[in-house]
Amino acid sequence: MRNIFLKGINTQSMNSQPLIEILESCIGCNKCVEVCPRYLFSIENKKAVITNFDPCHDCGHCLAICPVDAIIHHRMIMNTLEEDFPPVGKSLSYDQVLETIRQRRSIRLFTDKIVSDEDISKLIELGRYAPSGHNHCRVSYTVINGRKEVEHILENMIQLFKKMKKQLNSKIISFFAILAGKGKFFAQARRNLYRLESHIYHWEKGIDKVLHYSSTLILIHVDRTGSPIEDCNIAAQNIMLGAPTLGLGATYIGYLLKSWENSEKIREIIGLPDGHTLYACLAIGYPKNKFRRLVPRPESRVTVRG
Q1: pLDDT (average), residues 75-94
Q2: What's the pTM?
Q3: Which end of the chain has fewer beta carbons closer than 10 Å to its terminal beta carbon, N or C?
């Protein structure tokens, strides 16, 4: 039997079922109170009650921590508690996590083998479980799967690079950039011009140094709600860390992100939903080479206060 504890609400007069129900089996352990980011719960008469009616984050912390399964969340439980909130599995050790992180490599040469739809779905599932600001869970994915489509985007990127090269070599544009107070930005772009020139040169020689012969792109985008940059890039990191478990590799393509920002043609080709902004781009594929050793990194620069 369910006993609904909702302080200040007459449940008989409610037109719809309350979002969260607390069963009579509740033991008043206070755990839901401690973990709820919206402070929805409190304890009264040794039972959990809902005393704050701020919007629920749908984070599921209350369901995941309740020791007696006394909470029902109607927006989150779609099948059964066991299916939607399976018990926590075996924890990984610190060394296992560190090794996984250290084994991640940015792959810059892929084979021509196509990534299956099943594996793409698995990669996106990794992104699905990334944290997001206020638990908005609005990150979206656009997948470009096929070398022909990828090369069409790449060809337009090269055209953009040529246009940018011409602009960066223009004394007139440099003059007006200085007048507009953007001289430092223009000078920095000039210092990096050799990168664009290298990409153009290699592509004209039939060598893909931009997307690394990848046949699959995963583009991660969202509207501007919450913390969009962080949400998309955390999801991207999840995908990059998990890709090797499927025999795949990934690399972050900043040039595609900047090309999307600066080219209406590329935005048109990619075709994101209205109101969405692209925040992360990944090239995915099967690595042509296998790394045999882990790579060292410089010591972290740490300041400890207090």
Answers
A1: 85
A2: 0.83
A3: C
